[in-house]
Amino acid sequence: MEALQSWVSEHKLTSIGTLWASAIGASLAYSRAKTPLKPSLRLIHARMHAQALTLAVLSGAAAYHYYEKRAGEQGDNASPN
């Protein structure tokens, strides 16, 4: 798990782009199988799903970074004298 975290931290944009492309592909595959929509509408829905997922992941990453940084600052302030 630590190796995955270090790779993602080194390749942030690649990770987000891969997640976005995977979400579009999954949404297109799901909508093709379940709903009789025109291809243009499928693409619009897939983009919306991928953007929502990307925003959720970015929000989670920002929260993780904030709390990690905050915990590091508290650890520095609690050093014994």
UniProtKB/TrEMBL annotation:
<dbReference type="InterPro" id="IPR007667">
    <property type="entry name" value="Hypoxia_induced_domain"/>
</dbReference>
<protein>
    <recommendedName>
        <fullName>HIG1 domain-containing protein</fullName>
    </recommendedName>
</protein>
<dbReference type="GO" id="GO:0005739">
    <property type="term" value="C:mitochondrion"/>
</dbReference>
<feature type="domain" description="HIG1">
    <location>
        <begin position="1"/>
        <end position="76"/>
    </location>
</feature>
<dbReference type="InterPro" id="IPR040153">
    <property type="entry name" value="Rcf2"/>
</dbReference>
<dbReference type="Pfam" id="PF04588">
    <property type="entry name" value="HIG_1_N"/>
</dbReference>
<keyword id="KW-1133">Transmembrane helix</keyword>
<keyword id="KW-0812">Transmembrane</keyword>
<dbReference type="GO" id="GO:0033617">
    <property type="term" value="P:mitochondrial respiratory chain complex IV assembly"/>
</dbReference>
<keyword id="KW-0472">Membrane</keyword>
